[in-house]
Amino acid sequence: MTTRADCARRAAEAGAAVAAESFQGELTVETKAGKTDVVTQADRDAQRRVADAIGESFPGEPIVGEEDATPTSVPGEGPAWVVDPIDGTANYVRGIRTWATSVAATVDGEAVAGATVAPALGDAFVLESGGAIRNGEAVTVSDRTDPETFVVVPTMWWSPDRRGEYADACRGIVERFGDMRRFGSAQLELALCAAGAVDAVVTNVETSPWDTVVGAGLVEAAGGTVTNIHGEPWRHDSRGLVASNGAAHDAVLEAARAPETPSR
Predict the structure, then answer these.
(1) What is the DSSP secondary structure assignment for residue 231, as one 8-state letter?
(2) What is the arrangement of strands in the sheet containing 100-107, beginning at the earlier edge strand?
(3) pTM above 0.90?
(4) Partner residues linked to 114 by β-bridges
């Protein structure tokens, strides 16, 4: 019997393969909600391939996705699948390799399995049976405890009328931690936190489930902590996302809340 983890992995690999065919080629780029919110035919084709792969093993189960007018809310009851065909499309259209195809399996609104496949980087992260796997090997969050050695990621992107909050989020990070990165793919940023490459990932904005569900599950499965902006257990419909190795989560929360108390 095909497990949900196996299905998520195979579906993510299939979608990633479709997207990889057009990567660094000629693309027609469209915009959605804003000038930097871009989409390509590769996004749509990859999502359809993912949906086909899921349907082969779990026909009739609802699919929540970013493209093709699929539902955008994760059902609170029963099984569902959450798909991001290209997480990091802005990178993808510029030929930057930091993008991935992500597929999550949820039951009653909670992630039970998932996969994030980044073909241009040669990485595949799988969430299965409570464990976090990278390229076939179990991973854990970092064991750093000194915030001054942490690398922290301000993830997601703020709308034009909230860019001041991004500056405040960066201030909150640089005042407390050793360094900062931003990769432009939330699923990969969270996967890197699960693998111990970065120590925390933060945002105070509302996130979409296709950007976060697999990654948040990976961090928790790897031994980390994931909360909302208030320090409460994170859900796909939470406001804000604060993920860390757990060693200094209070300090990470303070940084995430910096946009709530901006400097004057």
Answers:
(1) S
(2) 63-65, 79-87, 100-107, 110-118, 123-128, 131-134, 137-138
(3) yes
(4) 104, 127
Nearest-angstrom CA–CA distance, 72 and 63: 9
- 5's tokens: 């983890």
The C-alpha atoms of residue 36 and residue 30 are separated, in whole angstroms, by 10
The Cα angle at residue 156 between residues 151 and 158, in degrees rounded to 5:
120
Superfamily of domain 4-138: Fructose-1,6-Bisphosphatase, subunit A, domain 1 (3.30.540.10)
**Using CA atoms, how far apart are residues 118 and 43, in angstroms rounded to an integer?**
14
> What confidence tens digit (pLDDT) does each residue in 199-253 have?
999 998 889 999 999 999 999 999 999 999 999 999 998 989 999 999 999 999 9
Topology, domain 147-260 = D-Maltodextrin-Binding Protein; domain 2 (3.40.190)
Quick: pLDDT tens for 86-144.
999 999 999 999 999 999 999 999 999 999 999 999 999 999 987 999 999 999 999 99
Distance of CA 187 to the CA centre of its chain: 2
Q: How far is CA 231 from the centre of its chain?
A: 19
Q: What three-state secondary structure class fits 55?
A: helix
Q: Give CA–CA dist 178/12, Å, rounded.
A: 34
Q: Indicate if the alpha-carbon torsion angle 61, 62, 63, 67 is positive or negative.
A: positive
